[in-house]
Amino acid sequence: MSFVRTVLGDVRPEDLGVCDAHDHLFFASPQLPGQELRSVSAARAELAAFRAQGGSAVVQWTPYGLGRRAADLPPLSRETGVHLVAATGLHQSVHYDDGTLAGLRDRLADVFVHELTEGIGTSGIRAGLIKIAGGFHALDAHARWTMTAAAEAHHATGAPIAVHHELGTGVLDVLDLLCDELAVPAHRVILGHLNRNPDSVVHRQAAESGAYLAFDGPSRANHATDWRMPDAVRALADAGFGDRLLLGGDTTTAAARSVAGGPGMPYLLRRVRPRLEVALGEELVHRILTENPGHAFGVDWR
């Protein structure tokens, strides 16, 4: 039987409820100085605002070494009534110093497996997914290393693998590596940021592989992708891939939180959901927010 591994224990996929399939409560990177997501009180307020819009689950894609604050997640989940899923994994190399990467060089897959089965650090909180990242239109040596380790950890545990795609690019290269070379079943792969590169041909090819496609996070004005997203999602649904789609918010900076005046987690349900309901209908959007995340993150854990 499949279960979604939350910070309070495993839950049935059908009990996940309305899910933000890609977001961050805590995140700290040298690439975003001064915009760290570190405040527990702000995270609590953000979850409460998401809950007030009808949300009941958030999958946090913050991986190893980027300020996950795993020990703070269970009390936040209890206090707000929102299921939380934590991640293991590793982001692009620019987010880490050389010493951190050198220390993981020969044990990365073991770290992933430990955090999925035993717990993150000394917290005892088990991760529910592996988050990794590709590059801009290509996969460098770091991406290949992390994806190889993620595949090994998947084969040991069954855990899903969620992939950050830089501006939505490199999707087919990721599938070639993970699924063709490393034998990860496509239905265990979640392709992030497909909204950032609205290429309908690539979207269709990715969906045909059996992977999940995540449309996650409002774009900046110069990306000009938000208005294309409903049509892209509708095209995939019309082609029979409505069960492959996920939605998320991807809040990565303090200024982007709703409690700081940004869109934040509530934006997914306050603005994105009704806009998609116009294009797809309420029933399909509800299934994308509830059933699909349960299937994508639900695992028969080994």
Describe this protein's structure.
- The chain has 302 residues and is of the alpha/beta class.
- It has a single domain (4-297), classed as Metal-dependent hydrolases (TIM Barrel).
- 39% of the residues lie in helices and 14% in strands.
- The chain has helices spanning 40-52, 73-80, 98-104, 108-117, 141-157, 171-181, 200-209, 229-241, 266-280, 282-289, 291-297; strands spanning 4-6, 9-11, 19-23, 57-60, 83-85, 87-89, 129-133, 161-164, 189-191, 212-216, 245-248.
- The strands form three sheets. Strands 6-7-8-9-10-11 form a six-stranded parallel beta sheet, with helices on both faces.
- β9 (189-191), α7 and β10 (212-216) form a beta-alpha-beta unit.
- α7 (200-209) packs parallel to α8 (229-241) and α8 crosses α9 (266-280).
- The model has no long low-confidence stretch (mean pLDDT 96).
